[in-house]
Write a structure and sequence with these properties.
The protein is mostly helical. It has 2 domains: about 80 residues, no CATH class; about 140 residues, Helix Hairpins. The chain has a 4-stranded mixed sheet. β3 and β4 form a beta hairpin. α1 packs antiparallel against α3 and α2 runs antiparallel to α3. It is rod-shaped, with a radius of gyration of 42 Å.
Length: about 250
């Protein structure tokens, strides 16, 4: 295959643009913020489960408190009625009076027991609320960190995408200057050789695979016409001669 030496040099420009785009695409996929976001979302997911458990406990305790308060109100109301009957002097039969006094005493003990149980539930509620508040605060902190990481990621993505768009536009111009058969060979090699389809001969070395050229290879390349498209026998990429080839 033959191609104008200037066109071959433009192939190196094309390779440079493609390599830069590849590096930017790799950078886009491997931003530190991506790993940070993933870790934060995992922590938020686990924390969300803990918060659901804490919220459920608080709700259960609140129902228990509401029921306890209702029971206390019921006992207190009944005790108050009995005390009012005792105070009214309406009951004069000794047996009935003793029974009513016994009932009042029983209700007082029952009220005391219920109030003590309520205090225990309130203590558990205070602890559960404290746990829920701490978890909620932790979630807010994690969400804040995630928001910052997302903002940083989006900002860098936007910058990278802009750079890739500019390089792609430059590539479209360079591409038109390269013969279709040479461009097709380059694209085929780039697809099969890790994104590198062409390299320069730099001081007797292939810049594509970084191997020094053998003496017989140098002799062969020196003897080739300036328009001859060279291929490296080791890496198979297109080799382009420059002023620094050292041939």
């Amino acid at each position: 295959m033959k191609a104008d030496p200037f066109v071959q040099l433009r192939l190196l420009d094309l390779q440079g643009l493609d390599s830069t785009c590849d590096r930017l695409a790799h950078k886009r996929k491997t931003l530190p913020e991506l790993a940070e976001i993933s870790q934060l979302e995992g922590s938020l997911s686990a924390l969300g489960d803990d918060i659901v458990v804490a919220e459920t406990l608080v709700q259960d305790l609140q129902r228990e408190l509401d029921k306890g308060e209702a029971d206390i109100d019921q006992v207190r109301a009944r005790k108050d009625r009995d005390e009012q009957r005792l105070a009214s002097g309406a009951i004069t039969v000794p047996k009935q009076l003793a029974e009513l006094q016994h009932e009042v005493a029983t209700l007082m003990r029952r009220q005391a027991d219920l109030e003590e149980a309520e205090l225990e539930v309130m203590e558990r509620m205070e602890e559960a609320q404290g746990t829920l508040t701490a978890l909620s605060t932790q979630r807010e902190d994690l969400e804040g960190s995630r928001a910052k990481a997302l903002s940083s990621r989006d900002e860098q993505w936007a910058q990278i995408d802009q750079e890739i768009a500019e390089l792609t536009a430059q590539r479209a111009v360079v591409e038109t200057e390269i013969a279709p058969d040479l461009l097709a060979l380059y694209e085929k090699l780039r697809a099969s050789e890790g994104g590198i389809g062409a390299g320069a001969i730099e001081r007797g070395r292939c810049s594509a695979c970084h191997l020094d050229l053998m003496q017989n290879e140098k002799a062969e390349y020196r003897a080739a016409g300036s328009d001859e498209v060279l291929r490296h026998e080791e890496c198979k990429r297109i080799l382009v001669r420059t002023a620094e080839s050292g041939l």
